[in-house]
């Protein structure tokens, strides 16, 4: 029986150790649960209800002054209640103030939680003025006709401005934020104001942080709807701007997300200078003069926007063309992709001094110019280098692509159609490579002026009224790979897919393509797109990939690399082959190697190869982490079990020793008693 008890006790100790380690209801989670539980049970207490309080004098709260602090204000006035905690904030409710004073409500030196709700404020210099008033919420208030600002906030933290109405104001700004952090401005209506929201700081070395502007409406703003300066971490999303002069005009922002906004009938839609890590996506900009313009920014992404119907009256000093969809100036490594840019009286995209930028998967239609590179922006130099312009569609533009002072750039896999002039290469544009482009149904395919030399053209498809004019020395073939010319009148007697006589190109340079592609160009590989269904990260490395058809491809192969794959890659030796000779347009990947990889599909035929877009996949990260955690848990369990077992053994051995020793003493005393009785 003793041995059984020992085993049971040790087993219970061991199981308790396992329960403590694996129990999901840990102390931190218990704390979190109780916090949530308390928040549910202790909802914010509603203020005392009343009719509207009409005040003839302003409200002033200085929380460091016993005569004007929150507690005294709440005690003395029925329109104020609360205790200043998170669950029971001080509340100013249903107050109407119409005075010609400096302010309607002023709060300073306050660090408690407070709310100003359902108030009607008008005709003072400032509607609400805050200074070092943290943890405040201004909600469902109506502001009108203030001469300075409807809300003026200085040196505040954690301010929320929600569901207010700002209208017909005489003020400079509806909301003015000076040196404020962690501010949320959400679901407000701004109409017929001079300015909407202005955020500013006078010392650039001390930047503001964390500003969210979400789901607001801006109507008929005569100046700037939003202006921010010297701030980090800005989110502007789901807002609507109509009839505004300048929707967003800001400078010196780090970490900006500007997404899902609608901008209609706007003069300047988006302007930003001196930005870093900028993300502009999924916006709709209609009837503008200047759509999206970035100046002196780095790490900028502009994608999935629709920009159309410019009105054609831009007069912007840094740019020499009107009605641009996107302007990218002195902004290196800018990614511009998956945008629809159409019906603009000026350029769809103007880019200059923005080296190593990529422009891909965009649609440019019915613009005066689709893309102009090297835009004249005096007095700065206007060249562009190392651009990658690929996989775009240009249709019905006057001129689709203009390269001005553009160097060492790649133009590939683009479709140009129904333009007056598809590609112009002018103003000393040199060392550019154009291949695998399709130019059809244009009045003129390519025009190269006398100053632009040493450019390379190959594997392009030309079928236009006039295919090319060249007035300088350039290369129209690469190796034995020339171009397809729809009006080539030579023959291919040896049936090797190459014309037997050169194609003569119009122009003063008397250029020629010595290896024109024969057979009606049917062997030219066309661009195609790759889609991945991998998870992020993909733990088991098993996922589907699908790709569209590349015309004239005989088969496809899958390659991967640990480095980013350039769309202009000319040799596959830099890649690792995963699977070859595929004829279907999908494949189930079973990638057994943990790590981060770039994957691409390559189409092949007898004349060459064509790369799809590549994608990045991360294999096995979560699985490794989980295995490490599980191993650590097992080790902890093992150590605790050993210590627990040893401790329990010592304790029970001592207990049994004491028990046994005590029984022996009792036996000796009993025997001694029996002997005493016998003797007596």
Overview of this protein structure:
The chain has 4 helices and 59 strands. It has a 47-stranded mixed β-sheet that branches. Strands 54, 55, 57, 58 and 59 form a 5-stranded antiparallel β-sheet that branches. The longest helix is centred in the C-terminal third of the chain and has 59 residues, at 621-679. It is an alpha/beta fold and 680 residues long. Among the domains are: 45-260, 3 Solenoid (Pectate Lyase C-like), CATH 2.160.20.10; 530-621, Immunoglobulins (Immunoglobulin-like).
Describe, in short, the structure shown:
This protein has 680 residues and is of the alpha/beta class.
List the main descriptive attributes of the protein structure presented here.
alpha/beta, 47-stranded mixed β-sheet, 680 residues, disordered C terminus, Pectate Lyase C-like, Immunoglobulin-like, flat, 59 strands
CATH fourth-tier homologous superfamily of the domain at 45-260: Single-stranded right-handed beta-helix, Pectin lyase-like
Mean pLDDT, as a whole number?
Answer: 83
The secondary structure category is alpha/beta
Proportion of β residues? 35-45%
Head-to-tail CA distance between termini: 40 Å
Most strands sheet: 47 strands, mixed
The top level CATH class name of the domain at 45-260: Mainly Beta
The Cα radius of gyration reads 37 Å
CATH topology of the domain at 45-260: Pectate Lyase C-like
Low-confidence stretches: 18-51, 313-321, 622-631, 665-680
Shape: flat
Number of helices: 4
What's the total number of strands? 59
- Helical amount: 10-25%
